[in-house]
Design brief:
There is one protein chain. This protein is mostly helical. The protein has a 3-stranded antiparallel sheet. A hairpin with a 4-residue loop joins strand 1 and strand 2. The radius of gyration is 26 Å and the shape is elongated. It starts with a helix and ends with a helix.
């Protein structure tokens, strides 16, 4: 079977038109490189791992493609050979996760200031931000909280997260600033007939989308650069904890991470933080 026949047979078995188009382009690109390198058409029955490794090296060193782009091309080749009963044993470059976006102390202060006000809605907004940025809760965990999940004392406080990732419950400590924000909100929250802690003006429980829109609107009001989301606030909390010397196992437990490897993302400082660290040295 020729290369063109094998490619058409493989692509015809794919259900997604988008995947067909992307794989077709990737396989055509490989065939062009193969002809320029070996002066012959690739033979899918005889294609070797060594030849594909040479191709990967070309994509990295000459074309300087990103790991995700290289993995797409390998996926097309791997799928083609698999359709012929063959196995491609070539690994792509390690995928690099993007740096974690977090807010500086100044940015977080501006965001909280933008939410402040005398009405109960403003008090609600400050409490919402505090739970995400100063206690590390996920947006889904925040909107699922009930009033009885809050334990607020003069010198300590806890939030019982019942709907954590993987349906695992955990108790999250609350610092004085978070406790104060919650107490001020609860003192003026209308007595709606729902146990949900955070509600809309009509008394309906807030959705994750409601909170995402709110955070974005407050970030614009605070004139913060870049996209600010509830997850950015959680990242901010974790990053600040580690910068202050908290051990990674403690941070993982507070965040509800099943694996410390997930928490290790926060160990890599951004360029802005590196620049900030050397100022005044």
């Amino acid at each position: 079977m020729s290369w063109a026949e094998a490619v058409e047979a493989f692509l015809s078995g794919l259900h997604s038109p988008r995947t067909q188009d992307r794989y077709r382009a990737a396989l055509a690109e490989f065939a062009s490189w193969y002809r320029q390198t070996f002066y012959d058409d690739p033979d899918p029955a005889l294609l070797t791992d060594l030849e594909v490794r040479d191709y990967v090296a070309h994509l990295q060193a000459v074309r300087r493609l990103s790991p995700s782009s290289i993995h797409l091309r390998l996926a097309a080749l791997r799928g083609l050979l698999k359709s012929l009963g063959r196995t491609l044993r070539v690994r792509g470059p390690r995928m690099q996760k993007p740096p974690v976006r977090s807010l500086s102390a100044r940015e977080l202060g501006r965001l909280l200031a933008a939410a402040e006000g005398e009405g109960w809605i403003e008090k609600r907004n400050v409490a919402l931000l505090a739970l995400m940025a100063k206690a590390g809760l996920r947006v889904g965990e925040v909107i699922a909280l009930e009033r009885t999940d809050m334990e607020l004392n003069a010198r300590s406080g806890w939030a019982l997260v019942r709907s954590g990732k993987g349906n695992k419950a955990r108790r999250v400590p609350l610092n004085a600033e978070v406790r104060r924000a919650l107490q001020e909100y609860l003192a003026c929250r209308p007595d709606f007939p729902t146990q949900r802690l955070f509600v809309s003006r009509t008394g309906a429980p807030l959705s994750a989308r409601d909170v995402q829109r709110l955070v974005g609107a407050l970030a614009r009001r605070a004139r913060l650069e870049g996209k600010v989301t509830p997850h950015v606030l959680r990242h901010t909390f974790a990053t600040r904890l580690l910068e202050r010397g908290a051990d990674i196992a403690t941070v993982a437990a507070i965040l509800g991470h099943e694996s410390i490897a997930a928490t290790s993302r926060y160990l890599h400082p951004s360029e802005a933080r590196l620049a900030e660290a050397v100022e005044g040295v």
